[in-house]
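Thread: Metalloendopeptidase, structure

OP (GT): Posting the sequence first so everyone is looking at the same thing. Length is 413 residues per the record. Can we get the structure tokens written out before standup tomorrow? I want them in the notebook alongside the other entries.
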Amino acid sequence: MILNFILLLWLFASSDSVKIYNSFSANIKENDLTRDKRSIVTAERERWRFPLSYFIEDGLNKDNIKAAIKKFESQTCLRFFKSTRLQADKQGLHFQPHQYCGTIIGNIYGDKAHVLGVDDYCNSSVGALQYLMGYTFGMVNQQSRSDRDKYVDVFMENVEPDDVLGFRKYDETEAEHYGLGYDFGSIFQYGIREFSVNGNYTILPKVILYKYMMGQRVGFSFNDYKLLNFHYCQKQIRKSAGKKLTCLNSGYPDPNKKGKCKCPHGYAGQRCDRIDCSDKKCAKTKYIAKSKYQKLKVQGKKNCTFLIQAPKGHRINIKVLQSITPKGKPCLKNSGLEIKHYKDKGATGLCVCGMKRDYELSSEDNKVLVIYKGLEASNMVQMEYKSYKQKNHHKPSHKPKPKKKVNQKGRHN
């Protein structure tokens, strides 16, 4: 199976949006941009071979590009080396100044240089450069996943006609996600009005509070890196695991450190078998959910990680009565409150910023991880939790609802 390779993306200088077209001139120059609606590439001509050379033209922020590359090297097995001249007939990355920020998705040219057009926006942002390079390596948007309908609603009638490819759903033969869960905190998740032709929603999450964390371009999430490692670094992962290493809680063998697991946010230990350390002021950090609601309250400036666990075969219902955390847009991990209620604990949990009241979540398995980062004395979270057998429980309504009602077509009522 392969990661899907669509074709072209653009990051406009005025925004952090990505446009996907059908074709792109490999030699990015004025008037060389083309659109061809006849085909979509679904496979690499040749897989990238690492270490991979890169060449940076004058006029670009070399420090930012090197910083983006360093992040990939620290979190994956991918390795790069700087070239002092362009070698058009060999695999490599060619960073070139351009009026737009864009590249072909995936290696469709085989043993030739791959051009990455860099505009002012990308040139100034390490996260945007990572975003650009991720597409170069074949990564696609979260809303293009085959299972997206379980997590989001997409309103194609509100999408700009030239941008529909960015919302197309691909089946598992076209885009492989290696069993990783849907990740609203991925750098490849569009915002709720991205590429809207009329200002209405183009995409909305089923759990409505996730909308406040969609569209981040700060950097790769844990699962973004994990996807790259699963696609390119299987040999190193097997070597790291050896015959004994088993990683828990959605961790996986670190391709850069033999015998050690890479752990999702909130987990720690050689095997990701324990939760992150909490401040002493947090007191108790592990709770057993029972059939009746129990209360959990935390307040003030402190860092706490709580594990709520139910018996096997049970799920957990969480009712957050109130949460007051620092404001953030988009809301990111370590910004206040994060609740990991999906089975894949590598996916970014629901991140909640600001003041919110009366919202409900259901877990996909028998564990929920709650991460609280109190940055101010006034910060607090008050919740209730209980366990239930899945077959006897009605799925809760996810609150709060949007301030503006949305009909089935994603328009404001």
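GT: Both are above now. Quick notes for whoever picks this up: Residues 62-75 form the longest helix (14 residues). The radius of gyration is 22 Å.
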